[in-house]
Each structure stands twice: as C-alpha cells, then as structure tokens.
Amino acid sequence: MNQDLVYKVKQEFGSQFGSQCLLINSPGRINLIGEHTDYNLGFVFPAAIDKGIICAMNHSNSSKCTISALDMNEVFELELDRLTIGQHGHWINYIIGVVSEIQKKGWQIKPFNMVFSGDIPKGAGLSSSAALENSIVFGLNELNSLRLSKMEMIHISQKAEHNYVGVKCGIMDQYASMFGEEDSALMIDCASLKAKIVKIAIQDYDIVLVNSNVSHSLVDAAYNDRRKVCEKVANLLNVEALRFANASNLLKLKSKISEEDYQKALYIIEENQRVIDAYKCLDQGDILGFGTLLFEAHKGASEQFCISCPELDYLVAFSKAHPYVIGARMMGGGFGGCTINLVAKDRVTDFIIAISEAYHLEFNKPCTTYKVQLSQGTHLIN
Question: Which pLDDT score, from 0 to 100, does residue 237 have?
Fold first, then answer.
C-alpha cells in the first residue's frame, strides 16, 4: 500500500470537508493467465496487487454528493435522486453506475462526500475501473450499514460497468480486486464463482510488468465484438458458454463458421485448459512449466484471438529471447497495456534496462516498468 497516497487523500478530505472519514484501499489486479475466459464461464487466475485506489468517504452535510478526483483535478456534484450518465468514457460514470445499481436493489444511500486518488498506471490493463467501483460500493456499504456481502458488492460493480460504462466485462476484475489475499492468487471458476486461494511461491523470480504505453482506446468495441463471437459459437454448439465446449466439438462446426471465428473460439477452449494446467504447475512447484504456459498464452492471444499489437508482440519476443525470463505474455483486454514477465530476481535490473533501451530504439517511445507484489483485496484502512 502506498502510504504517501493514503496520507494525501486523508489530508485532502479533511481540507475540503473538515471531518473524519472512512479510508478504503481497493487494489488493481494482474491476471497470471486466462484472458477472455471469464465471460465464457471458464477459469481465470488473477491476483490483487500493491497498486490501487485510495478512497476517503463520509456523509455529506448537504443534499448533494461531492466527489473529488485528485489525479484528474476534477470535482463533481451529484444529486442522488437525479442521476444522469456523464460523458462517455468519463470516470464519473463508474461512480454513478455503482450508486444507481445499489438504488435499484432498493437500498437507501445518504448523500456522501468522497476524495480518491490512485497509483495504478493509466491504460496498463491493471483494472483501475474495478478498483474504483469496488472502493465505492465497499465504502457506501460501510457508511450506510447495507450489510452487503462481498459477492453482492462485486456484482454491483460489474453491473455498473455493463450498464453505465458500456463494457460487458466478466466478473474477474472485480472479484480479484475484492477477494485478493497477500502473496496469493485466486483460481476462479467463473461458472460457479468459487475460488481456490493459491499461495504463489516463486521465490527466485519477480513479477515485472512492462507497460507498452500503447493506449487501448479501441478495447471497448473490440472486447464486445470478441464476446459476441464467443456467444455465437457457443450457441451453435448448443452449450451455455465455451467453457463447456471442446476442440473436437468445435472442429465439427468449422465448415459452418469463418476461420477467424473458429480460431477465436479455439483460443478460448485452449486458454481455459492452460489456466487449469497453470494451477497444476504452481501447485506442484513447476515454475518453469508455468512460464512456458505464459508464452503459449501470448501466442494464442496474438495469433488466434487477435488482441495483441506490434508493441506487445515485440516485448514478449524480447523476453523470450532472454534465458533469465522464464515466461511472458500480454495481459488484459488487449490492443495495448502491459506484458507480465517472470524474471530472475538477480537479473531484474538488467532486464529493465535492456528492455527499456530496446523498446525505445524499436518504437521511438518509452515503455514503463513496475515490480508488483500480490496484495490484500479491498479493505478498510485502520
């Protein structure tokens, strides 16, 4: 947790509103493996990280809510009985969405004030949106004694993104941000929403994220397009979702769909199995086998599901060429954002220098690197 960020948010809330506040830490997430499998009711393997949203909240003394986003230097006022969606893509829609979804359930919310800031790199695919949504629903639950379970909260966060942001996301991001545990990942079955907590013992390696600094501005439309393809193929296979399909069944359908759709569906089936295999590798301490699966996952995401970009492909190829990196892949919805890399601890500095120099030389722009630790999910700060 970024203590400087906690102090800044707390001080700003006191300065603006002159009162005590609830402080909430809501983390971003990484996904070790399993992209686009969540809305196909498959398996994913995410973890909360030590970068996130710090949110301060308390009741308002007026009939309006005042929300202050420190990083954007923006302040919005809301009236709870007259909520309207803001400009497309604006952060206020996440907050309006959460509030509206709570109200749809019939729960009463009192006017509140809120200040938030974060240290999740913008556009890195670390799910700052889920972290923000979870911080709001968690805080409002505490302030208004709603007694929502964590599972109820993440569904509210997900519906806010569906109905007020326009991204038909699965549940993984909100789940990992809310339920994460320190030094652990969550093997989530997205059909049952049951999870196994897996201690991640990779003592000789660090998780290093490399942000391509390519904005994935097209991801919303492309994400929804991929989802439609998956749903169409699942329907043709007469299964609820591609989680319940296999490669043999899909092959029988090949002549009835385009090659592009066939490859996208095959990727989901294969990626789902990779998540299961990754769990087995980590459970057995086979770190090298786990790393190999990361490289395979990137190849599928790039060549079959077509959600990579030249910059991400370059970063993964660079990592694969260096023996002290045992696994790497693009992470997130695609078309930009980060790669996740498993790098030998004693070579992390060398890796960061080398990949930064090579990337700048290749694309004439910088990449950004981060070491991350696996962290606790959304919680109150004492």
Answer: 96
Q: Are 121 and 211 in contact (CB under 8 A)?
A: yes
Of 202, 158, 165, 195, nearest in space to 180 by CA: 195
Alpha-carbon span 18 to 337, nearest angstrom: 38
Domains of the chain and any CATH numbers: 3-199+376-380 (3.30.230.10), 205-371 (3.30.70.890)
- Please check whether residue 249 is in contact with residue 237, taking contact to mean a CB–CB distance below 8 angstroms: yes
Which residue do the tokens 């709870």 mark?
80
Write out the E strands in the chain: 22-31, 43-44, 46-59, 65-69, 74-78, 112-118, 184-189, 194-199, 205-211, 325-331, 338-344, 368-371, 379-380
CA dihedral sign, ordered 170, 174, 176, 179: negative
Quickly count: other Cβ atoms within 10 Å of residue 182's Cβ: 13
Q: What is the DSSP letter of 162?
A: I
Encoded tokens for 366: 């910088």
Three-point CA angle 23, 29, 32, nearest 5°: 155
* Nearest alpha-carbon partner for 214 in 53, 323, 333, 326: 333
For residue 35, what are its two tokens? 């992209």
**Length, in residues, of the chain:** 382
Kindly compute the dihedral angle of the four CA atoms of residues 163, 167, 169, 173, in this order, to the nearest 10 degrees: -100
Q: What is the pTM of this model?
A: 0.88
**Residues sharing a CB contact under 8 Å with residue 124, sequence separation 6 or more, in sequence order:** 209, 211, 332, 337, 338, 368, 370
Tell me how crowded residue 267 is: count the other CB atoms within 10 A of its CB: 27
Rounded-to-integer distance, Cα 346 and Cα 206, Å: 9
Helical ranges in 199-309 per DSSP H? 219-236, 247-252, 259-283, 287-303
- Other CB atoms closer than 10 Å to residue 20's CB: what's the count? 11
Name the nearest CA neighbour of 295 among 342, 263, 337, 336: 342
Q: Mean pLDDT for each consecutive 10-residue tract of the chain (382 residues)?
A: 89 91 95 93 95 95 94 91 77 91 92 94 76 96 96 94 78 92 94 91 91 74 87 96 96 95 97 96 92 98 95 98 96 88 97 98 96 94 84
Which residues have a catalytic role annotated? 173
